[in-house]
Amino acid sequence: MKLQLNYYFAVVQRVLGLLLMIFSTSMLVPMILGLAYGDGEADAFGVGFLITLFTGVLLWLPVRHVRRELKIRDGFLVVVLFWMVLSLFGAVPLYLATRPDIGITDAVFESVSGLTTTGATILTGLDTLPHAVLFWRQLLHWMGGMGIIVLAVAVLPMLGVGGMQLYRAETPGPIKDSKLTPRIRETAKALWYLYLSLTAFCALVFWIAGMSGFDAISHAFSAIATGGFSNHDLSLGHHDSAVIELAAIIAMIVGSVSFSMHFMVWRSANPLTYWRDAETRTFLIMVLGATALATLVLMVAGTYVSLPSAFIKSMFQVVSIGTTTGFTTTDYSLWPSFLPMFLLLGSFVGGCAGSTTGGMKVVRFILLSKQGMREISRLIHPNAEIPIKISGKVIPDRVIQAVWGFFAVYITVFVVMFLILLATGLNELTAFSAVAASINNLGPGLGEVSSNMAGIPAIAKWVLCMAMLLGRLEVFTLLVILSPAFWRR
Questions:
Q1: For residue 265, with 0-12 CB atoms within 10 Å meaning exposed, 13-18 middle and 19 or more buried, which class applies?
Q2: Rounded Cα distance, 195 and 266, in Å
Q3: Which of 63, 69, 88, 173 could form a disulfide with 10 if both were Cys (CB 3.0 to 4.6 A apart)?
Q4: Hey, which residues does 390 pair with through a beta bridge?
Q5: What is the protein's membrane topology class (predicted)?
């Protein structure tokens, strides 16, 4: 039994070592930027690269000859361990850097926030930070957006490691077993080629709209990944450009639609495919409806006197908060009436399954609403067989049950973390919005965390790190390894 257990962990250890070695190479880019711009911190990333690479080699070397196809349990364990370990090693250069001068808690918080595409920050004075540090934050977003595991799925088969279980454990959404191509490696490569192409196009648009080359690439990383980090304390408001805001709106919406849907549209060369998909259509209708409501409230309250200005500001914040990106052009927490809480609650929905967004995903809310309507119909017709359909396809009851289970666990975890934050001394609004902004991978909250989370207690930051990881891994992926059944062979 002990031999079997050691063999089991050897396979996981080998994969983890390989993934860490792959991840270490990403630190070379900010190191080179630090040398090119000459504003410091190249050494911090060089040391971070060596530490990460050396650790990966130490893990891989003793078990390099162990070969076995990954099972579903292996996939969950590798994904959970990798996101936790990755967050710790992503914090190394931030901790070693002299600017910003932060402790281990803040460094880990910033790293977790970047990789999970949350966008909550503890940093201030972003405009004066070294280019290497700024780019690293954006690069963490970009790698975490599609999921570095999905990239690894395209690479690991060449190294003798199967990838299907990693793909299933990493990809968000309730229905995720379908592959775009016959081979899972080709599926991962197709998604990453698409992701890279959209990022490049977004960077080009930002540059044409007036951003510098560095800002354009950085914000393209953040927008496509629906992350929210910016190189400026005022976020996109720093540029004060309606054209840039419109470009960001489009980029955030693109990142919020399932990348499988993007692939299908590209393959069919028919943009109407978006509208025919029930989840995408519902998402777009929700965005337009929320924008219309926010515009009306802002105009009635006199916050903006010009209808075009009110509409653009409303749409930007609705898209940014609703897609869990977290860019800002104005302090939405100061908006009148119920709007700040309305937008924050919208982040619980998030974008489409299979996108880079956080939240519970639109398809789950569609299924919850349809199930609610079915229960009402059953009160009138108790013996009726009423199937639930999406886009003309009948959804199995097993999926509906899984969605209800996910919803229940999500809310339970939220309440527990909310109570813990209250116990640290935060007020109700700050604690509620901080947990919501973290577990939904949103970023900015309300109250004391409307601009950054630097002022909250250290214990609260660690709790929010766990919330961000739970949100990124859609709760069950992380909680499943805590189940006794998971460890029974």
A1: middle
A2: 12
A3: 63
A4: 393
A5: Multi-pass membrane protein
For 55-70, b/e burial (b = at least 16 CB within 10 A) is bbeebbeebeebeeeb
Q: Is the dihedral of CA 200, 178, 272, 368 positive or negative?
A: negative
Confirm if 213 and 288 have CB atoms less than 8 A apart: no
CA distance 475 to 469: 8
CB 201 within 8 A of CB 379: no
Alpha-carbon gap, residue 331 to 333, rounded angstroms:
5
Strand pairing class (389-390; 393-394): antiparallel
The pair phi, psi for residue 393, each rounded to 5°, is: -105, 135
CA distance 450 to 439: 16
Which residues are within 8 A (CB) of 164 and not within 5 positions of it... i.e. 6 or more apart? 70, 75, 184
Number of residues that make up the chain = 489
Average pLDDT over residues 285-311: 95
State the residue for tokens 């009402």: 376
What is the CB neighbour count within 10 angstroms for residue 481? 14
Residue of 371, 370, 365 lying closest to 407 (CA atoms): 365
User: Which of the residue ranges 168-172, 261-265, 431-435 has the most confident prediction, judged by mean pLDDT?
Assistant: 431-435
pLDDT, tens digit, for every residue of 130-157? 999 999 999 999 999 877 656 656 555 5
